[in-house]
Amino acid sequence: MNRVLSRFTLLMALLSGPLVVAQEPVAETIPLEKLGTLQLDFAAAREVSQYPAEPVSARVAYRTGEALLLIAPMALHQIDYLLSAGTHVASGQAFAELRGIQVHHLELARESGESLLEVTRNRYRNSEKLRRSNSISDSQWLEASREYYAAMAEYEHLRHFFDAVTEDPEREGVMILKAPLDGVLVYRESAFDGLSGMSSAAQDGDMAHGQVVASFVPDDRLRLQAQVPVSIVAELERLAVPDCELAIERTDALVTGFFVNVWSESVAQDCALRLGQQVVAIPQLRASAFQLPATAVFDWQGSANVLRKAGNGLEAVAVEVIAATGSDYIVTAGSSLADQQVLVSSVSAVQGLLLGMGGE
User: Fold this and answer.
1) How far apart are alpha carbons 318 and 342 in whole angstroms?
2) CA distances in angstroms from 70 to 19, 175, 259, listed in the order given
3) What is the per-residue burial (b if ≥16 Cβ within 10 Å, else e) of 281-306?
4) Cα 102 off chain centre by
5) Which helix (H) or strand (E) holds 215?
6) Rounded to an integer, what distance in angstroms lies between the CA atom of residue 235 and that of residue 101?
7) Which of 1, 5, 36, 345 is most buried when burial is the number of CB atoms within 10 A of its CB?
8) Quick check: helix, strand or coil at residue 50?
9) What is the DSSP letter of 84?
10) CA atoms of 95 and 84, how far apart (whole Å)
11) pLDDT tens figures, 138-194
């Protein structure tokens, strides 16, 4: 009975298809003596830790919040900007002038702010003493506290603005605004929209209370910003532009379509890049790979291969081409090709010999 079942099982196996026995792939090797008079030139494969992806558009920008803002403490109706947007300024350098009745209003606001702060401070201190002896109600103490802190906040806004103000004794009724730090002058606080010049309000000579008079971007806050495909973000290490490579410092979490926003480290001065400049950047991706001449790669048994010199023969090694740079390919391989000699001439002829050995 068991013999009948065994024959039946074998018959069903034969009818269902050919019997396949799994085998490890065997490297194809051709002795050098079989190559006759073929010209054999070799080049060393070089190990690389990164490789270039497709170029992307990038611009020199700064992240929102990285610029120092000078805020108008009151409505300003006449501002003369002395410098154009994007100018590099030194700390203390004049960039704008205020003139007219608004100068008097600003001086009056500073004097009244100082007086109001002094009055509310004295009331606050007196109320604090009375509160300790339970001589005033909680609501009276709260009112004195609110008035004092509101006056202090308002005065601090004025003081911050006047830190950037100087006066010319020979020009009465003129206030000169000066840069608070070394950096790039911008007339609107926006990493994208504020690079073209002053705001419409500034152009019209009218600026509302609380509006940005000017922004100052510190030199070490200029960086490259680019949108790159989501598919390469995990391996992205740097952005390369002519004469400069910058490491990626931050990747936004928000994805727009198929792209994500990335920011580089600070732009070095020797990169010669200016705020707002549009450049072509090449993403550099992290990889454990090898760079070798494109002429070394050929198709063999349905995959890309190279011929590595192994003793007195040539050994076909399967590779995967992941990028091209100039006349070279960037490839990965199952075994290391670092500093190994690969054939770069007569490759097609050797490929023909491999086909004659039974390859497809």
Assistant:
1) 12
2) 81, 15, 34
3) bbbbbebebbbbbebbbbebeeebbb
4) 42
5) strand 212-218
6) 59
7) 345
8) strand
9) -
10) 9
11) 999 999 999 999 999 999 988 988 899 988 777 888 899 999 999 999 986 443 343
Q: pTM of the entire structure?
A: 0.69
Q: How far apart are CA 184 and CA 179, in angstroms?
A: 10
As a whole number of angstroms, the distance between CA 145 and CA 27 comes to 85
DSSP label at residue 162: H
**Residue 50 burial (CB count, 10 A):** 20
The token pair at 142 is: 């709260």
At 172, phi and psi to the nearest 5?
A: -70, 140
Structural tokens at position 169: 């004794």
DSSP result, 262-294: EEEEEPPGGG---TT-EEEEEEEEEEEEEEEEG
Q: Hunting for tokens 């002038």 — which residue is that?
A: 97
Q: How many CA atoms lie within 13 A of 139 on its CB side?
A: 0
Q: Give, in order, the Cα–Cα distances in Å from 358 to each of 28, 64, 171, 191, 354.
A: 10, 64, 95, 62, 7
